[in-house]
Description:
Elements (H helix, E strand, L loop, with lengths): L9 E8 L2 H13 L4 E5 L2 E7 L4 H17 L9 E6 L3 H9 L2 E3 L3 E3 L13 E3 L13 H10 L8 E5 L5 H8 L4 E6 L2 H13 L6 E5 L12 E7 L2 H12 L2 E13 L2 H12 L2 E9 L2 E8 L3
Amino acid sequence: MSVDGTALPTxxxxxxxxxxxxxxxxxxxxxxxxxxxxxxxxxxxxAAWSGKVTQGPLLAEIRRVVASLAExxxxxxxxxxxxxxxxxDWVGRWRRSLGPIRAGExxxxxxPGVEADPDPGDRVLAIxxxxxxxxxxxxxxxxxxxxxxxxxxxxxxxxxxxCGNGILSIAAALLGxxxxxxxxxxxxxxxxTAENAERHGVGDNVRVxxxxxxxxxxxxxxxxxxxxNIYITPILAGLDRWxxxxxxxxxxxxxxxxxxxxxAELLAALDRMKMKVLRSExxxxxxCAVCELAGA
Length: 296
């Protein structure tokens, strides 16, 4: 309880082996499983979920993944510990431990509460790093931001599929996009995107909708730019429909895809759709492709 007698937020805090190593080999998976934050502590990695999460299936999946990585020699052991903690600012403390995060040449993600000294010309994104693929420290976000700044975004109409906390929509607006429609199935993501867009002064440019990106149809296509920082399965399932919303000569940014087999699947699908890959890059086992849709 807090000093005034009100209940503090409860977090499920999970401790896994590996420290900094675990961030590289396990961090992405934990974020995909809904972790709200994580931080290395010595030779361990501590991650937190809302205490309202269904703990049994979550912990079973974490233990399965950790055991597999340990068996392959990628983690030092397979010990997983979990506890419920009452702490008003667990995520805030983790957030402040990140420091500023650079993405591409011009973007600097500065979590609230973190001191930073941006360079002249930096485009600052003051984002709460909470959502799985909407966080500045996640490689897919940095890949997408680096890709965005290579495109002629000024004046564009854009779609952001699986918007997370809206960081890519906001980045597009800061690069001069005049209209961005951001879509996510999670109510928390919709709320965060709207709040973050307002905080960055681009609320009038970003329209947020709650929907399944595989069932949704955008208002007033076609668009100049489509961004999808999402998993390979929905990308492959939605690719044909999504590209029908993009103008000939328009651009796409696809990430949320693992290097290796998923990368090959994505590139094959893009080739089938006659997409020209302008830029491809990998970071921390994740892959991103920036493409151009063939002209009419």
